[in-house]
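Dear H.,

Thanks for agreeing to be a second pair of eyes. The structure we're designing against is below in token form, covering all 131 positions.
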């Protein structure tokens, strides 16, 4: 058997087809789905800010310096749609709206802390974002 045939038989051997070959695809899809939300500017910062407890729109706006009202509103809607943030309305007067982490959002926080620790150790000039 020639070299090219050996390489071909090794690449199509056991473990390259069936369930073993499908695992990386599903892992990549799950990671891509997570970064669909977290990869958007401000989403991670908003979630990180909500680790301190529920906050109203104005409080979030002050905590996430540099974000516009429209982008904050859009990100909160997206995070709510993804099931990471819960919007609560308290009847008034005055009516009060606050945003807090859902159970799924709170479950994400340890992974975000781990990612933050990794970034500060491994990425050049990983300075904290002001909140």
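And this is the sequence the design step returned. I haven't edited it by hand at all.
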């Amino acid at each position: 058997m020639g070299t090219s045939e050996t390489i071909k038989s090794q690449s199509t051997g056991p473990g390259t087809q069936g369930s073993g070959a499908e695992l990386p695809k599903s892992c990549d899809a799950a990671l891509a789905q997570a970064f669909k939300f977290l990869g958007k500017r401000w989403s991670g910062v908003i979630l990180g800010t909500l680790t301190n407890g529920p906050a109203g729109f104005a409080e979030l706006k002050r905590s996430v310096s540099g974000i516009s009202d429209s982008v904050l509103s859009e990100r909160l809607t997206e995070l709510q749609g993804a099931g990471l943030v819960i919007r609560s309305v308290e009847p008034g007067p005055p009516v009060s709206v606050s945003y807090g982490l859902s159970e799924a959002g709170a479950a994400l926080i340890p992974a975000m802390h781990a990612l933050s620790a990794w970034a500060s150790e491994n990425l050049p000039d990983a300075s904290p974002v002001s909140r």
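Two observations from my side: Residues 11 and 54 are 52 Å apart (CA to CA). The first helix runs from residue 3 to 11.

Warmly,
E.
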